């Protein structure tokens, strides 16, 4: 069960992904860049659990709890030089983007604060889009388990 602060962080990340779609970002590329970004790492470092490992919990809390999706987007555009013009790929619906952003953050908390870039390696933006219709109505834990299963099957088939 997530605390209210963690739920709020999930909601903010979902809103950030919707904002990316509205701004015309090619979604799979935005997801890749965000999940590997410094600001995403700061959000990863926020944790209310005093036993959780964190390099910079204060910075993480400042980003995760105090910044809106719009402020995070501004930081991505300005500090990380992520731009809609420099991305390739297709646009996803706002519903897919909200679900993907929310679920990635939930997955981070559910999997004992696994770094976002490692979660992205298991389920990239294209997989999230492909699986949306099948998984978006499931409980988050079920969706994560199914994404891991799909990821393992794809890995197995590509190595044969």
Helical residues, percent: 55-70%
Strand content: under 5%
> How far from one another are the termini?
39 Å
What is the radius of gyration? 15 Å
Q: The biggest beta sheet, please?
A: none
Please give a structural write-up:
- This protein starts with a helix and ends with a helix.
- Helices cover 69% and strands 0% of the residues.
- It is globular, with a radius of gyration of 15 Å.
- It has one domain (4-159).
- It has 160 residues and is mainly alpha-helical.
List keywords for this structure.
mainly alpha; about 70% helix; about 0% strand
Brief description of this entry?
This protein has 160 residues and is an all-alpha fold. The protein has helices at residues 4-22, 27-35, 38-45, 57-66, 69-78, 94-110, 116-122, 125-135, 140-159. The longest helix has 20 residues, at 140-159.
Please outline the helices and strands.
Elements (H helix, E strand, L loop, with lengths): L3 H19 L4 H9 L2 H8 L11 H10 L2 H10 L15 H17 L5 H7 L2 H11 L4 H20 L1
Helix pairs in contact: 1-5, 1-6, 3-4, 6-8, 8-9
């Amino acid at each position: 069960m997530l605390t209210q602060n963690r739920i709020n962080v999930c909601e903010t990340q979902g809103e950030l992904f919707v904002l990316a779609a509205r701004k015309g970002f090619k979604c799979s590329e935005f997801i890749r860049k965000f999940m590997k970004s410094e600001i995403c790492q700061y959000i990863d470092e926020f944790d209310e659990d005093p036993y959780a490992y964190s390099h910079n919990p204060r910075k993480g809390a400042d980003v995760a709890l105090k910044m809106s999706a719009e402020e995070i987007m501004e930081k991505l555009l300005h500090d990380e030089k992520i731009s809609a013009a420099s991305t390739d790929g297709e646009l996803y619906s706002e519903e897919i983007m909200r679900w993907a952003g929310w679920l990635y953050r939930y997955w981070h908390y559910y999997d004992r604060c696994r770094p976002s870039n490692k979660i992205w390696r298991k389920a990239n933006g294209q997989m999230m889009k492909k699986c949306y219709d099948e998984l978006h109505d499931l409980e988050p834990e079920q969706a994560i388990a199914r994404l891991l299963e799909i990821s393992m099957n794809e890995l197995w088939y590509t190595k044969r």
